[in-house]
Amino acid sequence: MSKIKLAPDNRDLSQFPGEYGLPFLGKTIDLVKDTVGFCTDHYERFGPVSRLDMVKNQRILMCLGPEFNEAALFDPKGNFSSAGGYGSSLGTLYPEGMLIRDDKQHKRTRRASQPAFKTEALKSYVEMLNPIQERRIQAMPVNEEFIFYDAIQETLMDVAARVFIGLDEKSPEAQRLNYIFETINKGLITPLPYNIPFTTFSKSLKAREELRQFFKTNIPLRRGSDAEDMFTRYCNAQDEDGEYLDDADIDGHMAFLLFAAFDTTTSALTNILYYLGKNPEWQDKVRNEIFNINNEMPTFEDLSEMTLTEYVFQETLRFYPSVMILNRRTTRDVHVHGYDIPANTMIMLSPPFTHRMEEWWSNPLEFDPMRFSPERSEHKRHGFNYVPFGGGAHKCIGMHFALMNAKLYLFRLLKNYKVTLRPDYDPAFMHVHLPRPIDGLPITLTKI
Ligand code: HEM
């Protein structure tokens, strides 16, 4: 894949109010510390559109509210580029990722990925997820505090190995892939993304190469196999001319899928348990719903009975959408909601800020899953006031998988255990990279 060549970013945002912040770091520290607080402060002082600098003085226009989400995500005219928005961040390690492609190239990738996300594929993943989750949940300590974030990370690593790559999650190969994957992702959050020997970033590039080699070696072995994991599905996918995807594409899609799926789901499940621990009456409601399902191992069809669980999932992602900031870059001069935004401007959208706007939500700071019920449907007050999975062409392709995975996990956990937090637990949350309680959520399980 050829590297994207772009005109330099537009740095003249002097017509907008805002603050650039410190030399080199810009406002990065404030934004990372408390993304929602930072956006709220800018909104109150400068209005919905304001300028700031991020690390390395990258100049950015923050655009707050559903109107801007709609313009940048729905974007039928291609005024906003996702490749431009993420090329200099995610693109350094995942240049072939779906989110780093626009227009025709993106459509092609999306089409090639469909077989791995169809209902029939999702059903086969249920069969793989159930035993992994059962084994991992059974191994958790009972009547003894432990850090849930670490436990769910291990579980989801097993899921990545089995469901995404088709490996036995206990095999040495799967363990090695865990290490590779962790090492790659450390490169995404290092402030020094330069390929200098022994640095985090150079280790990360090396790990990415090892992953590439793994896929390259295994593609011929998987072709023609009837295994049902995502990797094998990609290996067997054919385009309209009956041609297989080429190796580089499969590697690019798989590496990005692993990246896009893992931390987002870890964050979501950790935060769901936080809210269920803080709101025991909701934990009981979800458990009652689960008790009404007459299967030890839930089926794909059973999951549609878990509506209250789904509202809890949605409400958690309203407060803490796993992806707290979305990026785009304008491809031309655009006029949005009364503002003229010049071409080649980096744009930042904030899902969690939008999710807490009083104009669009009743008592937005209250945990109230029923706001997602059909009678209230607060998430539909504007087509883009609820965007935990983005929207438009790049809307999360793994959304249904993520919800299914979370429901299966909660089914098994809550059917067997009560989840308790420390008395008066009120943790600081980290916001970037991916929101969760900083201490990793200490919980205690008691047998029901
Ligand atoms: C709770 C879990 C998840 C959340 C909150 C989430 C959120 C998102 C968001 C917000 C986007 C759009 C980004 C943008 O437009 O800038 C996105 C895209 C994407 N997600 Fe997810 N995601 C989750 C889980 C997953 C899973 C499990 C997978 C794969 C199985 C996945 C694969 C992807 C891919 C491939 C894209 C890029 C789609 C495209 O460019 O067309 N995600 N996700």
TrEMBL record:
<dbReference type="GO" id="GO:0005506">
    <property type="term" value="F:iron ion binding"/>
</dbReference>
<dbReference type="GO" id="GO:0020037">
    <property type="term" value="F:heme binding"/>
</dbReference>
<dbReference type="Pfam" id="PF00067">
    <property type="entry name" value="p450"/>
</dbReference>
<dbReference type="InterPro" id="IPR002403">
    <property type="entry name" value="Cyt_P450_E_grp-IV"/>
</dbReference>
<keyword id="KW-0349">Heme</keyword>
<keyword id="KW-0479">Metal-binding</keyword>
<keyword id="KW-0503">Monooxygenase</keyword>
<dbReference type="GO" id="GO:0016705">
    <property type="term" value="F:oxidoreductase activity, acting on paired donors, with incorporation or reduction of molecular oxygen"/>
</dbReference>
<dbReference type="GO" id="GO:0016125">
    <property type="term" value="P:sterol metabolic process"/>
</dbReference>
<dbReference type="InterPro" id="IPR001128">
    <property type="entry name" value="Cyt_P450"/>
</dbReference>
<dbReference type="InterPro" id="IPR036396">
    <property type="entry name" value="Cyt_P450_sf"/>
</dbReference>
<protein>
    <recommendedName>
        <fullName>Cytochrome</fullName>
    </recommendedName>
</protein>
<feature type="binding site" description="axial binding residue">
    <location>
        <position position="396"/>
    </location>
    <ligand>
        <name>heme</name>
    </ligand>
</feature>
<dbReference type="GO" id="GO:0004497">
    <property type="term" value="F:monooxygenase activity"/>
</dbReference>
<keyword id="KW-0560">Oxidoreductase</keyword>
<comment type="similarity">
    <text>Belongs to the cytochrome P450 family.</text>
</comment>
<dbReference type="InterPro" id="IPR017972">
    <property type="entry name" value="Cyt_P450_CS"/>
</dbReference>
<keyword id="KW-0408">Iron</keyword>
